[in-house]
Amino acid sequence: MILNYNEIMKRQQVQISEVGPRDGLQSIKSIMPTEQKLLWLKALYDSGIQEIEVGSFVPPKLLPQMADTPEVVRQSKSWQLGTVLALVPNLQGAQAALEAGVDKLTIPVSASQAHSLANVRKTPQEMVEQVAQIVKLKNEVAPHVSVEVGISTAFGCTLQGQVPESEVISLAVALANMGVNEVGLSDTTGYANPAQVKRLFKQLFQELGSKAGAAHMHNTRGLGLANCLAAYEEGVRTFDASQGGLGGCPYAPGASGNVVTEDLVFMFEAMGVSTGIQFEKLLAARKVLQAALPNEQIYGMTPEAGIPKGFELNG
């Protein structure tokens, strides 16, 4: 079959889901004021990012960085610039998120029993039941809202060690059967390697088909971009990333560094794979982030090195 150019580009399109405002900010001690957080979010949407995880609905005493999430959701929704996504760990959080008006819920379900108990105080099996309750609530009060699940520690766990691949896939199937829209895989601890990523995502697509979801990779051991590329080659088209590489998991010791949004965008665009993101505007958003968090270190090879001479990104 011969494809025309437009069909090829349609197949190549990827979505970058920005998780810095949640995953990044919850992992640092600094608390970004709401006004600055909204300036950053607006700049990110303006760059062409279509989906942003703007916060999480958790008790403020546990994560004071996320205390303003209801207000952040309401303000972000008023702009109508893209999908407003929020993390919810349980039914109570989901109810609050739906009341605030989110477009999409993301639920973390760990494949590691040890990490699951540390993170949400529930076993993976109990979390599957919680997901079923959340989907039921969503269908009753906000059927237009979509639900994704990210399987945490899918590639290994600092607390438990190895996580059997068969258990990861079985968990994914059980979650898909609960009625969620998609199930992705998260390298919460930075253990993944490209061969493992290809193997697991291949199995995920075989079992879930169109419900196979995003790749959430960390750069803890320098393999973040390589793992994203491996996932792309297996058919993944949505990738989580964090501006400036902010983030990690507070319940997974040593799990530093999400994939840097700027570097991931450059990689795909250099390959001829469209992200829909305007790089100069993405760098403008980075400046907003730096101004808001002057005492926090942010990362990124491409922002430091610059775009190669004669190379154009999303002109």
Structure description:
The protein contains 13 helices and 8 strands. By secondary structure, it is α/β, with parallel strands linked by helices. The chain has one domain (65-305): Alpha-Beta Barrel (TIM Barrel). 44% of the residues lie in helices and 14% in strands. The protein is globular. Residues 1-5 and 7-11 have low confidence and may be disordered. The longest helix has 18 residues, at 124-141.
**Secondary-structure content class:** alpha/beta
- In angstroms, what separates the terminal alpha carbons? 31 Å
What is the total number of structural domains?
1
Query: Which parts are unreliable, with pLDDT below 50 for 5 consecutive residues or more?
Result: 1-5, 7-11
CATH topology-level fold name = TIM Barrel
Overall outline: globular
What would CATH call the homologous superfamily?
A: Aldolase class I
- Into which percentage range does the β-strand content fall? 5-15%
Name of the level-1 CATH class = Alpha Beta
Order of strands across the main sheet: 1-2-3-4-5-6-7-8
Helical content class: 40-55%
Under the CATH scheme, which architecture would be assigned? Answer: Alpha-Beta Barrel
What average pLDDT do the residues reach? 92
**Given the structure, what is the number of helices?**
13
Got a strand count?
A: 8
**SSE pattern, N- to C-terminal:** HEHHEHEHEHHEHEHEHEHHH
Major sheet characteristics: 8 strands, parallel, barrel
Rg over CA atoms, rounded to whole Å, is 18 Å
